[in-house]
Each structure stands twice: as structure tokens, then as C-alpha cells.
Automatic annotation (TrEMBL):
<keyword id="KW-0677">Repeat</keyword>
<dbReference type="GO" id="GO:0005737">
    <property type="term" value="C:cytoplasm"/>
</dbReference>
<dbReference type="InterPro" id="IPR042197">
    <property type="entry name" value="Apaf_helical"/>
</dbReference>
<keyword id="KW-0611">Plant defense</keyword>
<dbReference type="GO" id="GO:0098542">
    <property type="term" value="P:defense response to other organism"/>
</dbReference>
<dbReference type="InterPro" id="IPR027417">
    <property type="entry name" value="P-loop_NTPase"/>
</dbReference>
<keyword id="KW-0067">ATP-binding</keyword>
<dbReference type="Pfam" id="PF00931">
    <property type="entry name" value="NB-ARC"/>
</dbReference>
<keyword id="KW-0433">Leucine-rich repeat</keyword>
<protein>
    <submittedName>
        <fullName>Uncharacterized protein</fullName>
    </submittedName>
</protein>
<dbReference type="GO" id="GO:0016020">
    <property type="term" value="C:membrane"/>
</dbReference>
<dbReference type="GO" id="GO:0051607">
    <property type="term" value="P:defense response to virus"/>
</dbReference>
<dbReference type="InterPro" id="IPR036388">
    <property type="entry name" value="WH-like_DNA-bd_sf"/>
</dbReference>
<dbReference type="Pfam" id="PF23559">
    <property type="entry name" value="WHD_DRP"/>
</dbReference>
<dbReference type="InterPro" id="IPR058922">
    <property type="entry name" value="WHD_DRP"/>
</dbReference>
<dbReference type="InterPro" id="IPR044974">
    <property type="entry name" value="Disease_R_plants"/>
</dbReference>
<feature type="domain" description="Disease resistance protein winged helix">
    <location>
        <begin position="302"/>
        <end position="370"/>
    </location>
</feature>
Length: 441
């Protein structure tokens, strides 16, 4: 079908006759985008997988929408594939299909992906058919069938509304698996269901994944295991980061010196790999409204692994003027809503809550690395890493905000109004010192 689809795109409307197809939809393998069976032993999320498979095999006769949410690169698509290809699931459904929506959503592309996945083939294919006609054919082909469809990487409620209207609910026990980075979207798609929010891999699972990518079923040399576990731990349980680092390690000699070098700069390794981790994280950032972009970038001012007190973060956001009060809502209440929004978008991690109220939050290290790169590129924030406050030596002549940690800066330094760092900066934030400066100059 994929071959025919490409040929039709070339012919552009010419009739194709004498093509022979099977007369009914395949019960198991019509997949519109790449969704290969998982070759290696799956790592992590076993409990989530069991719950999802149980909902696919049993549960209500009504159409059930199973949502999976989490941070970019945490394994939503991988988990969906594992459930989709589970042997106990495959033969339960009459029709299977997999579509990837993504940020660049085009209704016509999605319609034809589904069309070629679920509509019984005929000896005539018309690529010029109208969207409504195509949608009707898809809907009728799913009518009175038990179907399993994965809708991967959904970004907007409008896109979901357009896609979901194609799925009839005939009490046949049909199921949809929806993956998204956005908790609000998952709740919108299924208000009565609890999303499967994926957590990070633990240290043992992280090492298992790294080991698997590098050695397969072979054992890791004894002298490398301790270093390897340290590398996996520094990825903080994010599967995407572990896979990227594993790809980097696979190109290097398997020696303690090489692995120690990587262990000392895991964040830099992830940043250097083109088109991989940071590009995927950037999609979440690019989708933010402008005021949330400023709030998010500002969080890069806090040190690595720093548990940020919510009250402090909100006061700093307000002081910077990122948000404005509207009507009866105070600017502090708006700031709280913005922070919860960033958490729902899987950009910020909630750490501690008390009586339902968020007390502390933090950034994953890889997300913070992206945050600092973007903030520096936009001249929004500069985080000092060197043993000096002479930031002008790095070619920066018009800073907006400067942040530093006294664990890496000489604590004996004293600020003066004439210092270049002060005169060029809007705000200066210091951590692990007795006095914090966050004063507009």
C-alpha cells in the first residue's frame, strides 16, 4: 500500500486499473507510519504496560481512549508500540492503524494516512478526492468494526477534534492510544480517564538501557561497569538522553579513559549530537506562548539539580515583569497558573506538594541545558561557569541577566556599580552565598 501510495502521488489522478488486492482490511498490520516491533528487551514502564494492555483486552464495550503523557524523550511512543504489538492484543482487533500527528499538523495528510490504513483497497484510487469524502470513507470503514488506533504525538485540541470525529463508537470494544506531552490535551481527549504519566527510569533501569544499547546480550567489561552506571545516572532516567549518550559511546574506544571523559560531560555530549535530544526538546519550547517562554528560560538561572522554592520563583517572575494582573486575578495567582501550565506541558518537574499546593519544582538537567543554550542565544540570561565574573572576556557586551553559583565563582568577589558585569546587566542572581543580588541596575 505504501508503494502504491507513492506511485499514485507521482501519477497525480491517473486511473489505475488491473491492480489486485485482498478484499478485506488486514487484521493486524496496516500501519501508516513506521512502527516496528521492538527488537530488544524492553526496559522500564512494565507496570504502565500491564495496565494499558489490560484496558486494550478488556474493559468497557464503549470506545476507550488511553492517554500517555510525559516529557519529550521519556518513552511515550515506545510504550505505545509495546502495547500495540503485544501478542495478546494483536488478534483482538479487526483493524489496526498508527498515525503520527506532530506539531506540523495537516488534516489532509492524516486523513490519507488513515484512509490507506483502514479502507479496503479497490482497483481505483483517487488522490484528488475531497477531505470530507475521504473522512466519510474512513468513518464507514471503521463502522461496526473493533479497531485499535494509535494517535502519536498530538499537540492541539483542534487537531484532536478533527481526528477523533473519524472514530465511530459502536460498543465494539474499540480502543485509541493517544500520546502527548500535554496533560491538558490528554484530559480533554478523555475527561473521565487518568492519563498514564510516565516517570523517569530508576538508576538500575537506566544502566540496563545503556548496557543493552552498547553490548546487547554480551556482558560489560568489569572495569567499565561502575563508570557506565555513573553515566546512566547522570542522564537522570531520561531514555532519550541515555540512547544519545550510548550512540556517542559506541563510536569511542571502550576504555576507562574514554568513558571517564564522557562521564565528566554528559550534558555536553547530549548537546553536541546534532538533530537529536535538544532538537526534540525544542519542539516543546517552541510551542509555548511568548509569556511562558520568558518564564521558562528564567528557570535556567537556578543551579543544576536545584530544588526551586515556588514562592521565590514567583516573586522573581513578578519582579522581572513577565506577567500582568487581569481583572480580579492577582499577578501572583497568574504566576502560579503559569507554573502549573509548564508542568502540564512536561517542561518543569513538580517536586513537592502540600495540601494540593505546589511548594518546590525543578528542571531535568537535560532540559536545563537546553534552557541555558536558548537563553544565551537570545541574550536573555547568562549563567557563569568560570572562576571569574569577567563575562566580557566571552565577547558579551550587552547582558540582560547574569546568574552564578558560588561553588564555581570566587566567593571573595564584591560587586561595585562600575563593574562591567553590573553595568551591563538588568539582574544578577547569586546562589550559595550569604547575600543574593536580584536588583535592577
Amino acid at each position: 500500500m505504501e508503494f502504491i501510495k507513492k506511485e499514485v502521488m507521482k501519477i497525480k489522478g491517473e486511473k489505475i486499473s488491473t491492480l489486485k488486492f485482498r478484499s478485506k482490511v488486514s487484521p493486524a498490520r496496516h500501519v501508516s507510519t513506521s512502527s516496528p516491533n521492538v527488537q530488544q528487551k524492553p526496559v522500564g514502564f512494565q507496570e504502565d504496560l500491564e495496565k494499558i494492555v489490560d484496558r486494550l483486552r478488556g474493559g468497557p464495550s464503549e470506545l476507550d481512549i488511553i492517554t500517555i503523557v510525559g516529557m519529550a524523550g521519556i518513552g511515550k511512543t515506545t510504550l505505545a508500540k509495546r502495547a500495540y504489538n503485544d501478542p495478546s492484543v494483536v488478534n483482538r482487533f479487526d483493524v489496526h492503524a498508527w498515525i503520527t500527528v506532530s506539531q506540523e499538523y495537516r488534516e489532509r495528510d492524516i486523513l490519507f494516512d488513515l484512509f490507506y490504513s483502514v479502507v479496503p483497497p479497490t482497483n481505483e484510487i483517487n488522490q484528488e478526492r475531497r477531505n470530507q469524502e475521504t473522512a466519510d470513507r474512513v468513518y464507514k470503514s471503521l463502522k461496526w468494526k473493533r479497531f485499535l488506533i494509535v494517535v502519536d504525538d498530538m499537540w492541539s485540541t483542534d487537531a484532536w477534534d478533527n481526528v477523533s470525529r473519524l472514530f465511530p463508537d459502536d460498543n465494539k470494544g474499540s480502543r485509541i492510544i493517544l500520546t502527548s506531552r500535554l496533560t491538558d490535551l490528554a484530559t480533554y481527549a478523555n475527561p473521565d480517564g487518568q492519563p498514564h504519566r510516565l516517570d523517569f527510569l530508576n538508576n538500575d533501569e537506566g544502566w540496563e538501557l545503556l548496557h543493552q544499547k552498547l553490548f546487547g546480550k554480551r556482558g560489560c567489561p568489569f572495569e567499565l561497569e561502575k563508570i557506565g552506571r555513573s553515566i546512566a545516572e547522570k542522564c537522570q532516567g531520561l531514555p532519550l538522553a541515555i540512547v544519545v549518550v550510548a550512540g556517542h559511546l559506541s563510536k569511542m574506544s571502550k576504555t576507562t579513559d574514554c568513558w571517564n571523559t564522557v562521564a565528566e560531560s554528559v550534558g555536553s555530549v547530549v548537546n553536541r549530537e546534532p538533530g537529536q535530544c535538544l532538537d526534540i526538546l525544542a519542539l516543546s519550547y517552541n510551542y509555548l506562548p511568548q509569556h511562558l517562554k520568558a518564564c521558562f528560560l528564567y528557570m535556567g538561572a537556578f543551579p543544576e539539580d536545584f530544588e526551586i522554592p515556588v514562592w521565590k520563583l514567583i516573586r522573581l517572575w513578578v519582579a522581572e515583569g513577565f506577567l500582568n494582573a487581569t481583572g480580579l486575578t492577582t499577578v501572583e495567582e497568574i504566576a502560579e497558573e503559569c507554573l502549573e501550565d509548564l508542568i502540564d506541558r512536561s517542561l518543569v518537574l513538580a517536586v513537592k506538594r502540600s495540601n494540593g499546593k505546589l511548594k518546590t519544582c525543578k528542571l531535568h538537567d537535560i532540559m536545563r541545558d537546553f534552557c541555558l543554550e536558548e537563553a544565551k542565544r537570545q541574550n536573555f540570561l547568562h549563567f557563569l561557569k568560570k572562576q571569574s565574573l569577567d563575562v566580557l572576556s566571552e565577547g558579551i557586551t550587552a547582558l540582560r541577566r547574569v546568574s552564578f553559583n558560588c561553588s564555581t565563582i570566587f566567593s571573595s568577589y564584591s560587586f561595585h556599580p562600575t563593574d562591567p558585569t553590573v553595568s551591563f546587566s538588568r539582574s544578577i542572581l547569586g546562589f550559595n552565598i550569604s547575600l543574593q543580588i536580584a536588583q535592577s541596575s
